[in-house]
Amino acid sequence: xxxxxxxxxxxxxxxxxxxxxxxxxxxxxxxxxxxxxxxxxxxxxxxxxxxxxxxxxxxxxxxxxxxxxxxxxxxxxxxxxxxxxxxxxxxxxxxxxxxxxxxxxxxxxxxxxxxxxxxxxxxxxxxxxxxxxxxxxx
Amino acid sequence: xxxxxxxxxxxxxxxxxxxxxxxxxxxxxxxxxxxxxxxxxxxxxxxxxxxxxxxxxxxxxxxxxxxxxxxxxxxxxxxxxxxxxxxxxxxxxxxxxxxxxxxxxxxxxxxxxxxxxxxxxxxxxxxxxxxxxxxxxxxxxxxxxxxxxxxxxxxxxxxxxxxxxxxxxxxxxxxxxxxxxxxxxxxxxxxxxxxxxxxxxxxxxxxxxxxxxxxxxxxxxxxxxxxxxxxxxxxxxxxxxxxxxxxxxxxxxxxxxxxxxxxxxxxxxxxxxxxxxxxxxxxxxxxxxxxxxxxxxxxxxxxxxxxxxxxxxxxxxxxxxxxxxxxxxxxxxxxxxxxxxxxxxxxxxxxxxxxxxxxxxxxxxxxxxxxxxxxxxxxxxxxxxxxxxxxxxxxxxxxxxxxxxxxxxxxxxxxxxxxxxxxxxxxxxxxxxxxxxxxxxxxxxxxxxxxxxxxxxxxxxxxxxxxxxxxxxxxxxxxxxxxxxxxxxxxxxxxxxxxxxxxxxxxxxxxxxxxxxxxxxxxxxxxxxxxxxxxxxxxxxxxxxxxxxxxxxxxx
Amino acid sequence: xxxxxxxxxxxxxxxxxxxxxxxxxxxxxxxxxxxxxxxxxxxxxxxxxxxxxxxxxxxxxxxxxxxxxxxxxxxxxxxxxxxxxxxxxxxxxxxxxxxxxxxxxxxxxxxxxxxxxxxxxxxxxxxxxxxxxxxxxxxxxxxxxxxxxxxxxxxxxxxxxxxxxxxxxxxxxxxxxxxxxxxxxxxxxxxxxxxxxxxxxxxxxxxxxxxxxxxxxxxxxxxxxxxxxxxxxxxxxxxxxxxxxxxxxxxxxxxxxxxxxxxxxxxxxxxxxxxxxxxxxxxxxxxxxxxxxxxxxxxxxxxxxxxxxxxxxxxxxxxxxxxxxxxxxxxxxxxxxxxxxxxxxxxxxxxxxxxxxxxxxxxxxxxxxxxxxxxxxxxxxxxxxxxxxxxxxxxxxxxxxxxxxxxxxxxxxxxxxxxxxxxxxxxxxxxxx
Lengths: 138, 556, 433
What we know:
The structure holds three protein chains of three kinds. Chain B is an alpha/beta fold. Helices cover about 50% and strands about 5% of the residues of chain B. Chain B is globular. Chain C has two domains: about 5-265, Rossmann fold (3-Layer(aba) Sandwich), CATH 3.40.50.300; about 300-430, 2,3-Dihydroxybiphenyl 1,2-Dioxygenase, domain 1 (Roll). Helix content of chain C is about 40%, strand content about 20%. Chain C has helices at about 5-10, 15-25, 50-60, 115-130, 150, 165-170, 190-210, 230-245, 245-275, 275-285, 290-295, 315-325, 360-370, 385-395, and strands at about 40-45, 70-75, 85, 100-105, 135, 155-160, 180-185, 215-220, 305-310, 325-330, 330-335, 340-345, 350-355, 375-380, 405, 410-415, 425-430. In chain C, strands 9, 10, 11, 12, 13, 14, 15, 16 and 17 form a nine-stranded mixed sheet that branches. A seven-stranded parallel sheet of chain C has the order 4-2-5-1-6-7-8, sandwiched between helices. In chain C, α2 (about 15-25) packs antiparallel against α4 and α3 packs across α8 (about 230-245). The longest helix of chain C is centred in the middle third of the chain and has 28 residues, at about 245-275. The relative contact order of chain C is 0.08.
């Protein structure tokens, strides 16, 4: 049904959000910018987002992916709330988590349905590739 | 022919006849540039050093303090070993403090959790997931008392990393001291209270910039009269660097902030610069780039001395001495092969000591994964002790002074920083620059460029883009006891129930009225509210009502 | 979710449905939007860093929560990668969870003039959804932000504290389009002098500009929340005035025209990407770039203007073409030629259906001798005289001297001289609006 437009065609939209109260936004901003330079339309929400704000943003933007960054150690509480709200709202948007995440917590996050978890030192290339795969862009 | 000409002639000859032929055979294996983009020549000589020893270097303890702020430096007194620490409830953290003191730590440094730093009580909806996570939860005065249980606060110096709620925390500390019969005038320590850098990089602000500046400078005006030994601000470059700034931006933005605070205190409170400048203190990072960091500390002292004397007309030498704390770079820690971080932090700590720091925190090697364990923080303290007691680097003051390379780097960093300070001046000072987002944008740009250089291999990080290992690290990590959160919530509720309601309400009402009156110093009202058992969320709630909450700019 | 369901949910201000419908609209899907009520579309422009999103946030926060507010925030796309870093929400995130507020970030996607088709499509959807206010935050790149005046009912220009010279520099672009100017309210001197400069400039403009609305200068600060109530009042006053004097409809017409232009740009790009063969022909020297462009756009002439079919009963013929799903125009009677005519519209040409009005007419004679079928073919030409000269040179018979028809000047070449085909030649009127 959709007309295929080229330069003016909508591109997959991605939400990058700082979930929770911590202010360490360096990584989130670097990743948002790298994804923009890889051709995505990236909505950066800024800091201090609640799980429901992030989901609401993704809904209003009709986003194809949510990336959250948490460096305060509160990832278990915040991400489980995020996943719960996504389910409640009946939307199907993959979630990436980045931050200081101990290995055993990473497994628990994946079990909650998170698509992938990245820690410090992950090459940007790797993140761009997984995002492309998840939103189905070539 | 003068001596300089002779050296120049010989230098050119060396380049021509020795260096270039050698490079033809074996070329350099990479480009050599400073981290802020200036090319580094292979050799530095007297040609790189300005011939003005007394003017630009001088002697330790004397203007311009390039070589140190005290005449005998570490030969009389070592820097303070001050490991930044805090987690869970005050009981947990108090135990950790006692452990650190037993291991040879000489000062305390409190890490607060995010709700405490943002003026939210632990039972607030937004606070709940974060209680006790990145620091200790201190929402009310009983918690503050437990934090220092059986620690003599009339003797030990304590540094509080607290900004948007600095007044509440200082008020709690003062009240605890008074309850122990200690005169607040003897209290010695620091509150960070540097709100500008929160807007620029650390992001834990509450109120809009102008209200926040009032809050911060009111505290400075108060302590200059009532807590003479206290450092009411620690003007911080550390967080700029953590957010991605270059070494030059770190220095320049820190000094531009110092200029802004000084202007504010002078203009708002009509206090003579010499009456409060001696209490100002600073906080920088140390990365693994040893020589650049040493040069930065030396350039910082010299620049600051000049600014205070020439720009603000300070007369007392005390007003021109830059006292600073150093924390090794958190951003330089890797989650990959975490033990390698011990080597990094050793070089970083060495930079701080060679740079003449007054106080030092060394990061634990596991901090890219979680908060440190007792074992890892002890190792970090041991790094300081090895440098202090075994290495011999403290034997002579400013031992790198006079090195052609170090002096050239010191001059270069100073010049580059001055350009940025001039630019901030042209914008109308740092508060204005922050409102239009200049430093925020500049740092975000540097952070992105840095990351690209890492990706392209132009910056080497062992374990990340060189000598990678696929295997996951197996180390034991610190876990915050989940019970501590419930303890915090229970206690804040107890405090709310067991207080004189009338006194509490009156104090908050008076605070509300004072907040609305521009010419009142806000601090005494906060102190009264805290004494009346108001919680941190209640005090900052009143100020939020009157001043509003700051929303970040859309500047990227 | 089928379209009907989606449309219903959109009218109930279901934000998920609104988001999905905007996505469909920006992909170029034509939607049956029967809008009941105009929204107040407020374009917020001003140089980058002037605090546009901060101001929108402050207004949206203060507008009563029973009013529906939509915010479209535009960020530039990278001309190299097509991606975009969209940070305008940062300032507004607190509003995200308010039931009455919908926020959407949009990238420029390589369009000059500041707006693209997706923006107009989104405005249509939001108006259909029943938004009371639609705030459109432009990129704010001065001169290139020109299209906003075609979609906004009210243009709010945010002027940062500037020197007089700088205001002069701004004047050529932003300063001419504003209905409301906002100067940051502050006690600093530059802000005060900016305010005075603006006031005197507006005074001078008032003498030139006719029309009922006089530009207004308001002092406000998004950052500290000062003056926002006054600003909202001015905006609401302006909307009431637009409603009472009928200007609201004019704005809608210019939005539709812009929508068409922007959609045409999109189609053009699509054609360009699909017709690589034309590019190849230009590269190989088979076509001139100009000719290739005309072919791409179907804009070359002569072109087939229409094919005419003689019918006995127009109404039954119309019925058949309608059933094929084709768009049939209004029947017209052309006395001079004794026919009743109707046009059937195709995307690249038309079919003309002809029914004779009286037995003596041309078409009646045609039906008598040949029965129903193709009556003639019409070519549109640029230069009718030149074409006639060439036809005569080739020995063809021109039936009549050129005469005025319904759409332009026409003449015919006799079928006897052209292999049995009656060929009409048309030169269309140039329509002057």
